C-alpha cells in the first residue's frame, strides 16, 4: 500500500488533472462532515486549490447523471459555476463502458465505480474520492482523498 501512495504522490508533481467523484461534489455542496472530519471544507479547499493552481477538474457524463439523482439542473449549474474555468467535460466511450463491465465483474465493484476509474485512467487523471469501493481499483488508477491533496 505504501508503494501505491508513493506512486500517487509522484503523479501529483507531474500532472494537474483530477477526476472528481460525485460524492466529493456532494460533500462540498452539502458541507458534509462525519463525526470528526470536515468533509465539505476539505472538498472546497481541494476544488479551490485546483482552480488557483491552474489545474483541471474532469467532469464526466456519468458524474452529471449521478448528480441529477440529487439535484435539479439549476442546482448543478450553481454547484459547478465557481469552478467552470477549471472544468473539462469528458464523455464516456463505448469501449470504456465495455471495459468497466469486465472490471466490475472481475473486481466485484459497482459498475459506476469501475467506469469512473476507467475514465480517470484514460484521461491521465487522479481519481479524487473517499469511497472505499474504489480501493479494489487502486492498481488501475491513482486514487486520492481531497485532504491528501491540499
Structure characterization notes:
- This protein is of the alpha/beta class and 150 residues long.
- It has one domain: Rossmann fold, CATH 3.40.50.
- Helix content is 55%, strand content 12%.
- It contains eight helices and five strands.
- A five-stranded parallel β-sheet has the order 3-2-1-4-5.
- Helix 2 crosses helix 3 and helix 6 (94-107) crosses helix 7 (111-122).
- The two termini are 21 Å apart.
- Residues 1-15 have low confidence and may be disordered.
Series of secondary-structure elements, N-terminal to C-terminal: HEHHEHHEHHEEH
CATH superfamily annotation = 5'-nuclease
CATH topology: Rossmann fold
DSSP summary: helix tally: 8
So, CATH architecture? 3-Layer(aba) Sandwich
Q: What value does the average pLDDT take? A: 87
Task: Give the structure's gist in a few sentences.
The protein is an alpha/beta fold. The protein has helices at residues 2-14, 22-30, 39-52, 61-68, 73-80, 94-107, 111-122, 146-149, and strands at residues 17-20, 56-60, 87-90, 126-128, 143-144.
